[in-house]
Amino acid sequence: MRALASACFATLMVGCGAPPPPGSTGGTQVTPGACGRGVGVVHTDYQSTNVSLLGWDGSVLSPSFISSATAGAKLSAKLTGDVMLPTEPHAGNALVVLDRYPASVITWVDVATAQVTAQLSVRSGFDANPHDYLAVSETRALITRFHRNPDPSAVAPDRGDDVLVVDPSGPSIVESIDLTAAMAGAPEKFHASPHRMARVGARVVVTLLGKTADHSEAVASRLVALDPSTGSIDDVLVLDGLYECNGLAPSPDGQRVAVSCSGRFLGGSEPSVGESAVVVVAVGPKLVEVTRAPAVADAPFAFGVAWASDSTLVANTFGRLASSSAPALPDTVVEIALPGLERRTLLESQGEAFTLGDVRCGAACGACFASDAGRRAVHRFTVDDSGRVGEATAIDVHDVIGLPPRFLGQF
After folding, report:
1. N or C: which end of the chain has fewer CB within 10 A?
2. Contact status, residue 142 vs residue 197, Cβ threshold 8 Å
3. 3-class secondary structure for 242-277?
4. How far apart are CA 277 and CA 148, in angstroms?
5. Percentages of the chain per state (helix, strand, coil), in multiples of 5
6. How far from 114 is each of 98, 133, 172, 183, 373, CA to CA, in Å?
7. What is the SS3 assignment for 280?
């Protein structure tokens, strides 16, 4: 029944006879603090999308900031069902929204007014699938394009599988950073497949998932350190034995990144536990793996990882659907204490697995958040001065479209 109801919302008036969803509930006048303004929440049934805004104190700032129903003079392409927010908050007055596949559109939305101020297509003649956005300055930003142009004669910036440089003041495409050199040693059929980015010191760290064009195969994931001004590749670190390293978070001290790797989905509905871990990498002259927390049995790490403090990580794990050979298991949100890697379960999913979607923390604000599509809530955790994460408090965002919250970002 829930799936049918979601589909009815997504198709709006097609088949279900439902009226169009309400418009935006506006922006927020919250001023930036130590952790930015707050947390953005992506609600989606993978057909339609709504983005809401929360304060770090858990207050609902705007339950429907922008959605698939939003219209406006500068909105040439409405949001689809495959929308994400950047890994790092945009330092300016806009929330940046990535409409990934097949739309391949970047949208800038004014935080105070909820008005779309600009859109930029990064398709370059193919479904580029932008996965992340990172502002370097007012006139330079980086975008990871996950897909490669199937036309073998395509040249930059139309080749894809790259880090695209854009001028957000236009906005306009400036150039492309080729990542071919970062895939040295891998067979030619494996693309870089750049995913997430984080600014650490004077460099930008990019995760590469190393997939084939049809996503059926992958090599071990890699981290690349880029000079954001020149686009030069400073270092590459292969995360040996780890695959699908989708989660990335810079540490509060600005010297490390945490990476969450789920492992490959090999012939089943759950990823390979032996290929899953959370890794801490020091970002100095070289990228150096500091420690690795392997996944425990039946609980591969998922796509979310965040720093609650310089010594505490929060990550989520995948559960398991029931089968004829094994019972169902819940998703979890776990605390990982450094350096000993002690773990503590903070939250379990209710009902089905694969419903705890993401985690975000503001270490300077003493709070972490987790999205929960199963309960249709966002959970807020307090973090004490020692870095220990407290109990969850559920927030009913109650967006006006009625979509489940799945992904998080900061703004």
Report:
1. N
2. yes
3. CCCCCEEEECCCCCEEEEEECCCCCCCCCCCHHHCE
4. 28
5. 5, 45, 50
6. 16, 19, 22, 40, 24
7. strand
Tell me, what's the pLDDT at 323? 85
Torsion of CA 395, 35, 231, 99, to 10 degrees: 20
Least Cα distance to 75 among 113, 116, 20, 109 occurs for 116
Q: Provide the 3-class DSSP secondary structure of residue 4.
A: helix
Q: Tokens 């503001």: give the residue.
A: 362
Alpha-carbon distance of 359 to 381, in angstroms, equals 10
Q: Split the chain (411 residues) into runs of 10 and give each run's mean pLDDT.
A: 37 42 84 94 96 97 94 81 94 94 97 96 95 96 98 94 97 97 97 98 97 95 97 98 98 97 81 94 97 95 97 96 89 97 97 94 97 97 97 92 94 94
Question: Apex CA 186: angle with CA 205 and CA 148, to 5°?
Answer: 65
Locate tokens 């990882």: which residue? 305
Asked if residue 301 lies in contact with residue 262, where contact means CB atoms within 8 angstroms, the answer is yes
Contact 226, 233 (CB under 8 A): yes
Q: Which amino acid is at 395?
A: I
Q: pTM for this structure?
A: 0.92
The distance of Cα 299 from the centroid of its chain, to the nearest Å, equals 20
Q: What angle do CA 329, 379, 56 make, to 5 degrees?
A: 150
Residues sharing a CB contact under 8 Å with residue 399, sequence separation 6 or more, in sequence order = 43, 50, 52, 63, 64, 67
For residue 298, which amino acid is it? D
